[in-house]
Amino acid sequence: MSATAVIELDGVLLVTIQGELTDQDAIALQHDLTTQVASVGARGVLIDISALEIVDSFLARTLHDIAGSTSLLAAETVVVGMRPEVAITLVELGLTLPGLRTALSVADGLALFGGSIAAPSEGA
Question: One of this protein's Pfam families, by short name (predicted)?
Fold first, then answer.
């Protein structure tokens, strides 16, 4: 089972997928995220997939479904950290994921929600 970490940053849930997900893990992630969006009133979800070397068709569809579910709860989902190889593979499979926003990094994704990650201050 893959480990996923979820933290809240100023009304945005940041989900870091730290290893390959089984289909069961992906379904559980969709359920857990939808529940957390509703319970905390999140306005956005960032899903960091930078640790993934492969995104298969099931996970791609699940990411699309997560975006649909969270949208119904007034939150937007942005996938961040997609590797070039993953993007190429998804296009080759015909999985362009219409309606799912992406960003290159967590900082870029957070900026889409009007937030930023503060740099550590000097001397702190």
Answer: STAS
Domain at 40, CATH number: 3.30.750.24
What DSSP designation does 77 have?
E
Altogether, the residues listed in the chain come to a count of: 124
Q: Residue 31: which domain range?
A: 4-123
CA distance 28 to 3: 12
- For the segment 2-13, the average pLDDT, to the nearest whole number, is 84
Helix residue ranges per DSSP H, the chain: 23-40, 57-72, 84-92, 106-112
Model pTM?
Answer: 0.87
Relative to beta strand 44-48, strand 76-80 is parallel
Whose tokens are 């119904």? That residue is 72
Name the residue among 29, 37, 50, 27 with its Cα closest to residue 109.
50
Helix axes 57-72, 23-40, angle to 10 degrees: 10
Domain count, the chain: 1
What amino acid is encoded at 12 in this protein? V
Q: Is the pLDDT of residue 10 over 70?
A: yes
